[in-house]
Write a structure and sequence with these properties.
The protein has 313 residues and is α+β, with helices and mostly antiparallel strands. 24% of the residues lie in helices and 20% in strands. The chain has one domain. Strand 8 and strand 9 form a beta hairpin. The longest helix has 20 residues.
Length: 313
């Protein structure tokens, strides 16, 4: 813990120091990625199949899709469902010119999934759509407010698509608002942890290639694979995630990542997600395991079981 405090204490001094430096560089000369950024967008991760290999939308098509998304907001839930947040709480953003966030393969879609994943995804989807929750472990790690894993933590979802980037000469820190993950990434060339040591967010190491920060993440835990992947694109314990951050101007970071995961996909895939200034601060995301949502889901499942048992008598 003392090392984390030391890192963040050094960062507190940066704004004043940076003012004396040339724009776009830290006091020690690295490209300056610091700030509070958002990647919110309604651009889908996968390209609609009818668009084939078409990568770019016209301005007219973008406007029409934004209007369509606006019209679909705050629709009543299907019969028998409680629904979720109304639109006041959501922060979807707008369409970019990309037809999908995935840019490789050229069709903008995931590579074929392995048989292992097809079977487990189907089983978990069936569980999630029902009410047979026997234990808190039947809910995924996102529902339980533990993590979105990688690369899920860096992909926009429903809200809180916000990131604060801090830098010292030896570390880059990425504070993720959603699920309050903090990625403390060394720049000193140290080796990755031994493969047996898996972590929710993996083990990340960074380096500079010219003006681009390259972050390689390994050591994702197998515990996150089945319980996060279905909803938020987590990878298996065999995965390597390679991210690239390039500050192109004051108002944009070009961000991309490539997933190599032979246990999940037939080949690698790459997504590009621009990041722009949030224009505000990151606030606490107070989701935590054991909150009333988890308790009520399990209570509802037990009540449904009692009702069914009574009806069968």
């Amino acid at each position: 813990m003392k090392y984390v405090v030391a890192i963040l204490s050094g960062v507190v001094l940066l704004p004043g120091l940076a003012a004396a430096q040339a724009p776009g560089r830290t006091p020690w000369g690295d490209p300056d990625l610091q700030g509070v950024w958002t990647n919110r967008t309604t651009t889908p991760l996968e390209r609609p199949s009818e668009l084939g290999e078409r990568a770019v939308l016209s301005d007219e098509e973008r406007a029409a899709l934004d209007a369509e998304a606006d019209a679909a907001r705050d629709q009543p839930p299907p019969p028998g469902r409680t629904g979720a947040y109304n639109d006041f709480w959501l922060d979807r953003g707008v369409r970019t010119s990309q037809t999908s966030l995935i840019v490789d393969p050229p069709d903008g879609r995931y590579p074929a999934k392995t048989e292992r994943v097809r079977e487990s995804d189907a089983a978990f989807a069936a569980l999630r759509d029902g009410t047979q929750f026997d234990t808190w472990e039947d809910l995924n790690l996102y529902d339980r407010c533990l993590t979105r894993g990688m690369p899920g933590a860096m992909i926009p979802g429903f809200y809180n698509h916000n990131y604060q980037i801090l830098q010292t000469p030896d570390y880059v820190v990425i504070l993720v608002e959603m699920i309050h993950d903090a990625r403390i990434i060394p720049l000193d060339g140290r080796a990755h942890l031994p493969p047996r040591l898996g972590q929710w967010m993996g083990d990340s190491r960074a380096r500079w290639e010219g003006d681009t920060l390259v972050v390689e993440t390994t050591n994702l835990t197998r515990r996150g694979d089945e319980r996060v992947r279905y909803l938020v694109h987590a990878a298996s314990d065999q995965a390597q995630v390679v991210e690239r951050f390039t500050r192109v101007d004051a108002g944009r970071i070009d961000y991309s990542f490539t997933v190599h995961d032979p246990a999940t996909y037939a080949g690698p895939w790459t997504a590009e997600i621009p990041m722009v200034p949030l224009g505000g601060e990151i606030f606490e995301y107070a989701c935590h395991e054991g909150n009333y949502g988890l308790e009520n889901i399990l209570a509802g499942a037990r009540q449904a079981e009692r009702r069914m048992a009574g009806a069968s008598r």
